Amino acid sequence: MEKLQLKDFLNYAYISNLKSSDDKERLAFVVSAANADTNGYDQNIYVLDQEVRQLTSGNHEAGFIWEDNDHLLFKAMRDEADKKKTADGEELSVFYRISTHGGEAVKAFEVPYTVTAYEKLDADRYLMCVNYNLNYSMMAELNDEEKQKLLKQKKADQAVEVVDELPFYFNGAGFINKTRSRLMLYSVSDQSVKWLTPLHMDVSGINLHPQKNKVLFSAVTYLVQPNLQAGIYCADLNDQTMEELYPEGRHDIAQVCFFDDEILVLAAGNDRYGLNENPEFYLLKEGNLELLAHNEDAVGSSVGSDCRYGGGKMSFVKNGKFYFVTTRRNASHLYSLDHEGNIEPVFTEEGSLDCIAEYQDGIAAAAMLQGKLQEVYMLKDAGIQLSALNEKALKGKYVADYEKITFENDGVDLDGWVLKPYDYDPNKKYPAILDIHGGPKTVYGEVFYHEMQVWASEGYFVFFMNPRGGDGRGNAFADIRGKYGTIDYDDLMKFTDVVLEKYPAIDPARLGETGGSYGGFMSNWIIGHTDRFAAVASQRSIANWVGFNGTSDIGPHFSKDQCAGDVWEDMEKLWWHSPLKYADKAKTPTLFIHSDEDYRCPISEGYQMASALMQHGVPTRLVVFHGENHELSRGGKPLNRIRRLEEITNWMDKYCKGSE
């Protein structure tokens, strides 16, 4: 049995965007792979038809649709002339068609807009969602002379950023000031565009009617700052009219879809548990939401892993039922909802369902089950594996088993896990690393986590848990508004005590701790409240809720909601929950990992905390990754992911293995 190596993630296949053909007899999906040579990700389309086979090899095919049972349509930029147009600032989306039986992809048509989603309506028309900037929204309608003038202005504008909206930037998208998402109908035959939504409306959550004659969506219209509670709209695709079905400002709309002859809405009022409140199931009738089924659980998967790339559908309607992925306890499961409001389990194995699709007479999923990397499964029995894309990646490698610990703190039962080190000998003493998840409304589960398995192979015990504030246990469990650094911190310290008692082979003098995002907040909090850890690695963290309010893409609403205080009226409340307040108490050697394009937990948070520690004589190292964002650990450039994990591992080795 060989050790798992830090760079082994370069051999993993990441499965996403699972979709079935119209007759449900075949599946297609995207497989992504990290490529160290290009320092990017190769993305190609695969088909499952009796067996799994690769369909495209352009390495840039991240999305597609089935046009019929035998052809796929995908967006790609293959021609050098097309690449030059976009490099010069033009908006352009080029579509290719390929037979699922093989052969070369053929250029089908192009659209002078940045298309983010699309559906085929008939032989000529496509429903498209496009991203555009209000300053340049009319570029496609200009003549050549006018277009060149606007392109010249656009190029000059790249030297500055003008901000007059909130949020003015967004993690992973960069500066988004004046950016909107708009629906249109596109005719291939005459290259005409029919806009379905107005200029300042920002569209999301599209759901096409099975008869392809109308589309549901949620949207907000704004000039300065969008309402967090979107409205619901329906557009008629025949007469190109739009109707408001439910106004903005009433509910946080998580999803809207056609449910046979009814309209199903997943929405939260945010009045009981704030922004993290889980959605209820409603039917939209005559402008009102009528409760169909009460729901306390998260819709979608909150199970963390650093072995995914890309997303996919998490729900659909089939035979009178709405099938959806939901996070329950420490895993994501498949449940169904019928028209009477009955919610029933369909597939409840431990693991993570990452996207689902109808397939033959059942349901398929890209999933992480039995502690394995992603594969395609039929969701039947314990899961019938249909692919073997990752079988070779872990063959002969040490993968530590998940040893579950359930313990009680403050009258609440809590779950955690321990991974034993490679070549474990109970008569030896070992260092250990506590890993804290982000969110806080996410969960750890029994799914493959590359960084944890690497540390186990490097001779560490690794332990991790789901403290209060996490997902999967209902609204009340997740609600730690105004309690950051209190009950959640107590849960983590109690878990550490329990692990040390249960595993005497762990040396309590050689404990390390790390975490990202909320886990980074907690890392910063820990060093100001205890000296029990020999080393800490704080990643993409929060240090100062006051500054976070004005610099994070979600700051204006998230800090007020989660800290239960307003910057101008409750400054002391926000400061009390800020790790920076306690930085003068820190003694633990601390590594900070941050990215300069992280707009969720901005780099100013890392700067403040690192500076404070250095001012107080604490061994400190800050590593800034240029051109990366909040997703560095799971979707960053491969070479930067390697450097990040090397930095953390080396820091732990320096302070937790020094006395071996």
Commentary on this structure:
This protein is α+β, with helices and mostly antiparallel strands and 660 residues long. It has a domain at 403-656: Alpha/Beta hydrolase fold, catalytic domain (Rossmann fold). It contains twelve helices and 39 strands. The strands form nine sheets. Strands 32-33-35-34-36-37-38-39 form an eight-stranded mixed sheet, with helices on both faces. A hairpin with a 2-residue loop joins strand 28 and strand 29 (362-369). Helix 7 (545-551) packs antiparallel against helix 8 (555-563). The longest helix is centred in the C-terminal third of the chain and has 19 residues, at 638-656. The model has no long low-confidence stretch (mean pLDDT 97).
Q: Gap between N and C termini, in Å?
A: 23 Å
CATH superfamily of the domain at 403-656: Alpha/Beta hydrolase fold, catalytic domain
Biggest pleated sheet: 8 strands, mixed
Structural class: alpha+beta
Please name the CATH architecture of the domain at 403-656: 3-Layer(aba) Sandwich
Percent helix among the residues?
10-25%
Based on CA atoms alone, the radius of gyration comes out at 25 Å
Enumerate the strands of the largest sheet in spatial order, edge to edge or round the barrel.
32-33-35-34-36-37-38-39
Q: Count of helical segments?
A: 12
Q: What global shape is seen?
A: globular
CATH topology label of the domain at 403-656: Rossmann fold
CATH class of the domain at 403-656: Alpha Beta
Low-pLDDT parts are none
Calculate the mean pLDDT score and round it. 97
Amount of beta strand: 35-45%
The overall strand count is 39
GO molecular function: serine-type endopeptidase activity
InterPro entries: AB_hydrolase_fold (IPR029058), Peptidase_S9_cat (IPR001375)
Family: Belongs to the peptidase S9C family.
Protein name: S9 family peptidase
